[in-house]
Every structure is written in structure tokens, then in C-alpha cells.
Amino acid sequence: MSTIHMTPEFLRGIIKGEVNFRKCPDCYGEGDAYAYNDGQIPCTMQEWSEIEAEGEEWRKAHPGESLPDRYYGGPEGCETCEGVGYIQVP
């Protein structure tokens, strides 16, 4: 978990509704960005769930074999919003 530093004035502006935020376009408000193909191709959380399920099926069908790169990836802290899930509206 990271620490967020803000001035008292900025925090007061958030509380009073003077500073506006919206869901992060990269993580859809989740705080985690998902990617597959060894983290190279961005995807949504739903898409990652489907890819992860496919990987489990592949693993069952090919015991003892290495999982293809397509099935490696998963959630990582979103760099755009720094894991908060929301970004400030200018």
C-alpha cells in the first residue's frame, strides 16, 4: 500500500466538493490495471477472469507442460491513478 500526501487545503477542497474526481480510465475505478500475455496486453478485470479460467482449463488438458505466455499476467497497481481508482478532473 502506498501513502498519499496532500495539503490540508487540498483535502478541504475534496471534502467541500470543490475538487472533482472521476473513475480512472485505465483501471475503471478498481485501482488495479489488468494485463495478459505476460503483462503486455491490457485488459479489463472481466477479461482477465475469463483468461485465467482458460488458463486453468489449458493446465488440466496439458499436465506437466509450461503454461503459454498468453495466460501469464493479472492485476498490478494502476500507474495512472497510483492505485486509487480515481483521477482528478482538471
Describe the overall structure:
With 90 residues, this protein is an alpha+beta fold. It has one domain. It has two helices and five strands; from the N terminus they run H-E-E-E-H-E-E. It has a three-stranded antiparallel sheet with strand order 3-2-4, covered by helices on one side. It has a two-stranded antiparallel ribbon with strand order 1-5. It is elongated and about 60 Å long. The two termini are 26 Å apart. The model has no long low-confidence stretch (mean pLDDT 87).
Tally of separate helices: 2
C-alpha geometry: elongated
Uncertain segments:
none
Structural class per helix/strand content? alpha+beta
Largest sheet: 3 strands, antiparallel
End-to-end Cα distance? 26 Å
Taking all Cα atoms into account, the compactness measure Rg is: 18 Å
Mean pLDDT: 87
For the biggest β-sheet, the strand order reads 3-2-4
Q: Provide the β-strand percentage band.
A: 15-25%
> How many structural units, i.e. domains?
1
Q: Summarize the amount of helix as a percent range.
A: 25-40%
| Strands, count | 5
List SSEs in N-to-C order.
HEEEHEE
